[in-house]
Write a structure and sequence with these properties.
By secondary structure, the protein is of the alpha/beta class. It has 13 helices and 9 strands. Strands 1, 2, 3, 4, 5, 6, 7, 8 and 9 form a 9-stranded mixed beta sheet that branches. Strand 5, helix 6 and strand 6 form a beta-alpha-beta unit. It is globular.
Length: about 325
């Protein structure tokens, strides 16, 4: 049913976007924005603020239509629709197909907290690296926020050391920085859409998965997972993107409104995510989850085990240079 709905909406979008008219003072615009989270997730709540801001500041000349909960398909499906001009905007991954430079944010144990991530996200040099690369892929990056610190869950055992990861079969998204990290730690992985994860965990197709607390809670994954390693092994960027050709077709004043609204979205979601995280984690504990926070020494063992991931991305994949990595690292450290 979701695919039928998605196809219908995509075909409608294709007809409406086949020819992008020249901008005029009286023209109105509709921006369809898709994402995979539910309407209760911080992402969607923050997008409602984005919608309100844009429509107020443009006096209704730009209308935002939100499509949550993957009704337009998986994240790769929506991203491809956006690239082809059948969907105007999108929030989510996968990141490599937006800009390989986004992998700068995905290195394991790179950021200590949200504040450290945002120092890099708001830096003009880093933002330009990513946005210029995305433009070459036909996409406009409007803003980068905090997509959440990622934790590892499973149904087999408490994870205390990297050795405890060995033999676990984990679901991951199709994000290379995650798959490389999991295999480096000794786990195997299966990539699948988020919508399929609950049943895969329940049926034992996979032993576990990794996601931010907000997503684990939103998707009710804690109902089918006993153990949570609260380790913050990655902080993912929350990227709002738009079809670049559509963005350029807009009057400049509307482009500015969208940019300002995108950063408002980031600020709103960042705030909600931080406020909700502790309460959500406590609810999971009350539901019977074994939540383990490693000591500083135990966490260092994970950091050391993941060191080869950095070299892989710099020297093997060459997605970014050592100089670019050092720039983000210095910003993360507040230097």
């Amino acid at each position: 049913m979701k695919r039928i709905i998605a196809l219908t909406l995509v075909l409608a979008a294709l007809l409406s976007c086949a020819l992008v008219p020249a901008a005029s003072a009286d023209q109105t615009y509709t921006i369809k924005l898709g994402h995979t989270m539910s309407t209760a997730h911080p992402r969607h709540i923050a997008l409602l603020e984005f919608e309100k801001y844009v429509e107020e500041k443009t006096e209704g000349k730009v209308q935002i239509e939100l499509y949550p909960a993957a009704v337009l398909g998986s994240e790769p499906d929506m991203q491809e629709s956006m690239r082809m001009g059948m969907l105007e905007a999108f929030v989510g991954g996968p990141f490599d197909t937006i800009s390989k430079k986004l992998n700068l944010f995905l290195m394991p144990f790179f950021f200590d907290n949200q504040e450290a991530l945002m120092r890099a996200a708001k830096d003009e040099r880093v933002f330009s690296l990513i946005s210029d690369d995305a433009e070459a892929n036909g996409l406009k990056v409007l803003a980068i926020g905090d997509g959440g610190a990622r934790q590892i869950t499973n149904s087999k055992r408490r994870i205390v050391t990297p050795a405890d990861m060995k033999g676990l079969k984990l679901r991951t998204p199709s994000i290379e920085a995650i798959t490389v990290c999991m295999t480096t730690l000794g786990a195997s992985y299966i990539s699948m859409p988020l919508a399929d994860v609950y049943m895969a965990l329940k049926q034992g197709t996979v032993d576990g998965q990794e996601n931010p607390i907000a997503t684990i809670y939103d998707q009710k994954l804690y109902e089918v997972q006993k153990y949570i390693l609260y380790v913050n092994y990655q902080y993912h960027p929350e990227v709002m993107t738009m079809n670049a050709a559509f963005y350029r077709s807009l009057p400049e004043e509307y482009q500015k409104v969208l940019s300002d609204a995108a950063w408002l979205f980031v600020e709103t979601e960042n705030k909600i995510s931080l406020e909700n995280a502790e309460a959500r984690l406590e609810e999971m504990k009350q539901a019977g989850c074994d939540v383990y926070t490693p000591t500083a020494e135990e966490r260092q063992a994970f950091i050391d085990a993941c060191a080869p991931v950095y070299d892989h991305f710099v020297n093997n994949l060459k997605y970014f240079s050592q100089e670019e990595l050092d720039l983000v690292k210095s910003l993360a450290e507040g230097k």
